[in-house]
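Lecture notes, unit on protein representations.

Consider one protein chain, 195 amino acids long.
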Amino acid sequence: MAQESRRERKKRATRNKILNTALSLFAENGYEKVRVEDIREKVDIANATFFAYFPTKVSLIKAFGEDLIGAITDRLDEYEGGAIDRLEILRVIYFDEWAAHIELLRVLLADPGSPEALAISAVAEDLLDIIEELTQAGQQEGAISKGYDARLVAHCIMGGWRAAMINFLRSGDHTAATSANRQILDIVLGGAATD
């Protein structure tokens, strides 16, 4: 891999600072109440600088999702265990990140047709692809039955996790939500597991 230049490192650091500041403000004040000006002022950058990295407030959500997929992919690439264990790693990262950004999750689930929800939909497809690939790997390993369509298994897992997230938003009970997310994976994979 080519070494990152000083300028590239500085650009990446600025992008991350803007995004992390925005996520922090969303958590403190709610997504709807935070203005681009609030983010820009907190980071101490000019309008042009902000918009060079994020053309809209919605683009911050897309960037968060892309970073989440990047973190999942990096972690899975580092792990050498089987597909079932890798699905568990994915589950933990996915749930913990969304639990840490519950206000953003609330906005995305409130209106599936909103620009914010649509901005993250490509990320959901990427996650679905990862789960499908892990399901296929599990089928090759003999841990998941080849009699099930891998994409359908991935949809079942994602649908279950979405339901668990909605319950988490209602209850706020992190422990119960963590348990529900784990149980969903067990239920889906238990139904698809070989004897």
